[in-house]
Amino acid sequence: MPIRIPEDLPAQDVLSGENIFAMTSSRAAQQDIRPLEVGILNLMPNKIETEVQLLRLLSNTPLQINVDFIRIDDIAPKNTPQSHMEAFYHQFSDIAKKKYDGLIITGAPLAHLQYEEVKYWDRMTAILDWANRHVQSTLYLCWAAHAAIYHFYGIRRTLLNNKVCGVFQHKVLAPHNELLRGFDPCFFAPHSRFGHVDVEHWQNIPGLEIIAQSEQAGVYVAASEDKRMVFVTGHPEYEGQTLHEEYCRDTDVGLFPAVPKNYYPHDDPQNEPIVRWRAHGSLLVSNWLNYFVYQTTPFDLNQLAANKKVHQETS
Family assignment (predicted)? Predict the structure, then answer.
């Protein structure tokens, strides 16, 4: 069964054109099952592009999913029409009393900003604490993964002079963990970030398991033993051209970015990028939905608060 999204959401046409089954709300209402409730806190500037990327991954499952898009503030995004935000996004205050089976918090293009310098950091920490009480399992991507590690465990990322950017090979360190069920022992995934957390810091977090790691990019996937928190430091949702578009954008504004590693044949930006992470990215999100959300969430979400283990907050 597919994801259920609003009938007029632009992503509907894109997904249909790719032969991805996304059910409209009216059709889903005719089915007598409880769909999963999944929220997406979208912090990326191009909301529509990120919506398509994440919905594509969420669609590869037999589960029916209701998706709520959540915004962190009232500021009109630079690359997304305000009318789109008003039509398809919820203010956090509107859904604060709701409980979710799953929540995805995206990365954010915050470059060299320290957390306390982020204009919405207070709201971000409030949402992180709320998720511990209202969400069965939360998937943190890229910047959000580092932000959550800092908020809950007090581990501050190192800001690098050179961006970790490219497609890197990773090794599965925990082959019996359900999150990577079906993965090859070695797989590729894209990264695009300035932040870095040393593996020793990840290893010192109690109750956290490092599941996949790269020699070049560091820890890629880690998860809490209770399956409530999943940290992914890269971008499994990225499309084939996303890193290329980032490289061209940074080049056009005079930032002189390094060529993304292991991305273009012969590291030549004139060549068509090699896409070799899509299958594993899709499988990662499908496994999260099935084993960390669907298999663990209570049928009655009102029971979630009593079962939820709240992690120690250190900030």
Answer: Belongs to the MetA family.
